[in-house]
Design a protein that fits this description.
15 strands; 24% strand; globular; five-stranded antiparallel β-sheet; alpha+beta; 30% helix
């Protein structure tokens, strides 16, 4: 894959997060970070998530994902490309195509309990049918088509949309907090996606659960909760066994105390749900 393609598909936020760099302030399109090459009190690095580029107002330098790695690691283009290849480029390309769907106008027609036979079967195939009360059936229109999908609500009112063919977000992207008033141990469990959360609910009886849960809905959302996580005495991680998941785990382990990596439990699989589906399939 050539340099221009890598500049296009490797998410600039993900690259910055891999170096433990997070926004000081942001909106849906842009964010300000502290400079890459100096200490400063007022953030001067403007990052455009749509263009996948950054501009330093202090020096006038422009950056793409390759030059960011070069600047931070003090390395050549070749070494920067080697660093960026630790991300799953094929997956990123797929995600880029899917996320582009989110720029198309859509209309949510109806939100209801899951009833559509195809969606019920989809939940059965993911082995989380019994947890269907945590999700909704979203009927929406996009690009002239009426679509049925599983929807998981985030804290900004958006819906993470999943079916056999779609993996997008309708509305503003955000995390989902599920808090328990009986959480006297002050512990939180973090999941990357909501199917892993539903899977955990399949494993642990609801009445036995007295912890808080955080579903990131994307590793890129970690910056939104970094301050809130400081309040917890223990953090347990059920993240994906892929470059983004591993990079996020490293960020959390480096910034918080008493972090437990539970992904070792399903180390031979991409995520908790994939392991659970394999396990249940053998029963």
């Amino acid at each position: 894959m050539n340099c221009e393609k890598i500049k296009e598909i490797v998410n600039i936020r993900t690259v910055l997060e891999s170096f433990n760099l997070f926004p000081v302030k942001e909106n849906q399109r842009t964010a300000f970070y502290f400079a890459l090459d100096r200490e400063e009190k007022i953030a001067s690095l403007s990052v455009d998530f749509i263009k996948n580029k950054a501009f330093d107002f202090g020096t006038g330098k422009s950056y793409d994902v390759i030059s960011i790695v070069q600047q931070i690691n003090k390395c050549s283009v070749s070494d920067a490309l080697t660093y960026l290849r630790k991300f799953d480029l094929s997956t990123l390309e797929t995600e880029r195509v899917k996320k582009s769907d989110n720029t198309i106008n859509y209309e949510i027609i109806q939100v209801q309990d899951v009833r559509h036979p195809a969606l019920l079967q989809y939940l059965r195939s993911r082995k989380v049918f019994e947890q269907r009360h945590f999700v909704k059936e979203i009927i929406y229109r996009m690009a002239g088509k009426k679509i049925f999908a599983i929807g998981f609500k985030n804290d900004s009112g958006g819906f993470e949309i999943r079916n056999r063919y779609a993996k997008i977000c309708l509305g503003q992207k955000d995390v989902t907090w599920i808090k328990n008033r009986c959480n006297t141990n002050n512990e939180v469990i973090i999941f990357e996606g909501f199917f892993d959360y539903l899977t955990y609910r399949m494993i642990v009886k609801e009445e036995d659960s007295v912890l808080d849960y955080l579903i990131l809905n994307s590793t890129a959302m970690l910056f939104k909760v970094k301050e809130k996580l400081k309040a917890y005495h223990k953090i347990s991680l059920f993240l994906d066994n892929d470059p983004n998941g591993l990079a996020t785990k490293e960020v959390i382990e480096n910034n918080y105390q008493n972090v437990e990596d539970c992904s070792l439990f399903y180390a031979a699989f991409k995520d908790l749900n994939e392991w659970f589906c394999s396990f249940k399939g053998k029963l």
